[in-house]
Amino acid sequence: MNDSYDFIKACYGQPVARTPVWLMRQAGRYLPQYRKIRERVTFLELCKTPELAAEVTIQPVDALGVDAAILFSDILVPIEPMGQRLHYRPAPVLEPPVRSAADVAALQVLKPEQDVPYVLETIRLVRRELAGRVPLIGFGGAPFTLACYMVEGVGSRHFLALKKLMYQSPIVYAQLMDKITDTSIVYLRAQAEAGVQALQIFDSWGGILSPADYKRHVLPYSRRLIAALEDLGLPLIHFVKGAGTMLDLVASAGGQVVGLDWSISLNRARDVLGTKMAVQGNLDPSVLLGDQAVIEREVQRILDENAGRPGHVFNLGHGILPDVPPENAAFLVDCVHRLSQH
Predict the structure, then answer these.
(1) What percentage of the chain reaches a pLDDT higher than 70?
(2) Which 3-state string (H, E, C) describes the chain?
(3) CA distances, 261 to each of 82, 121, 169, 284, 338 (Å)
(4) pLDDT tens digits along 62-74
C-alpha cells in the first residue's frame, strides 16, 4: 500500500488533510477531448487499444484534478472471451443469451493474459504515464450484474429472464454464478498484478432484488470474490446501486469501502456501517447540471453529513452524465477540496 495518497488513506479509514474525490465514469463522453478520440474509433476499439485507453484514463486527472484515475474499460469486456459475442448498438448486446445448463457449460473461464492483454497493457501504460501523481483504480462487474447482462442479452428494467432462471432453475443459476465469479477473480487479480492500486466492484443491478433474495442469491458470490482478493493488499470498494435498505448485507461481503448512491443519506449510511467500514459517495449526478451555487451547497451538505469522520471518499452516486459541463465537474472537485480542507 502506498499510504502517501489521500485516496488510499481514506479507503483505510485514516485521517486526511482534505477529502479525496474522483467521479464514476470520469473518463467519458462529457469531456470534449474524449469525444474527439471517439470520432475515430468505436467504443470497443477504444477499450482494446491500450495507447488510447490510457490517454482517456488520464484525461480527467489533467482536466479535473481528481485524486484517483480509474481504468478506462467496460465491465463486459471479460465476458466476450467467455463465449458471448459483445456488440454496442449503442447499448451493449451479448449474443447468444445464456438461458440453459448447456449454455453455461459452453462458457469458458477467462485467461487474462491470453484473452484481455490490452486491459493489462493499458494498466501498465497508465502507471508509467501517471508517474505517481495519483493512484489507479481497476474495476470489474460483480457476478450478479454480469449475470444480468449475460442472461438477458441486453440491458433491462426488470431483468425478468435472469429472475426466471434464478427462481425456476436455481442449479443452473448457481453454476452460472460460480463460473462468472471464477472469471471475476482471475480478472481482478490480473489487474492488480499489472499495477492497479485499488479495485472497485460494480454491482449496478444488485439493488433490484429484495434483501432476502440478495442475501440468498448474490451475497455468497460477492463474498467469495472479495475474499479471493483480500491477500492483494489493495483497498476494495464494493458499490451496489440501490442497496440503501441493505447496507449491512453489502458490508458483510467484505472489503474496505462501501459505495453509496444517493438513495440514502451519508450520515444514515455511516451509522449503519459503523466505524470500521469506509464509504464512497454519494452526490446525485444530476446536481452537476445545476449552477455553481447548487453544486457548492450539495457538496457542503454531504461533507456536513459525514461530520469530519475519517474514511470518506467523495464521489457521485452513479456515473457522471454525458450532458454535464466539464467546468461543473472541475468546480465540484475544487469544492470538495476547498470545503473539506483541515
Answers:
(1) 99
(2) CCCCCHHHHHHCCCCCCCCCECCCCCCCCCCHHHHHHHCCCCHHHHHCCHHHHHHHHHHHHHHHCCCCEECCCCCCHHHHHHCCEEEECCCEEEECCCCCHHHHHHCCCCCHHHHCHHHHHHHHHHHHHHCCCCCEEEEEECHHHHHHHHHHCECCCCCHHHHHHHHHCHHHHHHHHHHHHHHHHHHHHHHHHHCCCEEEEEECCHHHCCHHHHHHHCHHHHHHHHHCCHHHCCCEEEEECCCCCCHHHHHCCCCCEEECCCCCCHHHHHHHHCCCCEEEEEECHHHHHCCHHHHHHHHHHHHHHHCCCCCEEEEECCCCCCCCCHHHHHHHHHHHHHHHCC
(3) 30, 31, 31, 7, 23
(4) 999 999 999 999 9
Instruction: Return the domain boundaries, the chain.
Output: 6-340
CATH (residue range 6-340): 3.20.20.210
How many other β-carbons are positioned within 10 Å of the β-carbon of residue 21?
29
Query: What are the residue numbers of the active site?
Result: 25, 29, 38, 74, 149
Task: List, for residues 197-233, the tens digit of each pLDDT value.
Answer: 999 999 999 999 999 999 999 999 999 999 999 999 9
Cell of 118: 490490452
**Residues constituting the chain:** 342
Q: 93 pairs with which residues across the strands? A: 87, 154
C-alpha cell at 305: 453529513
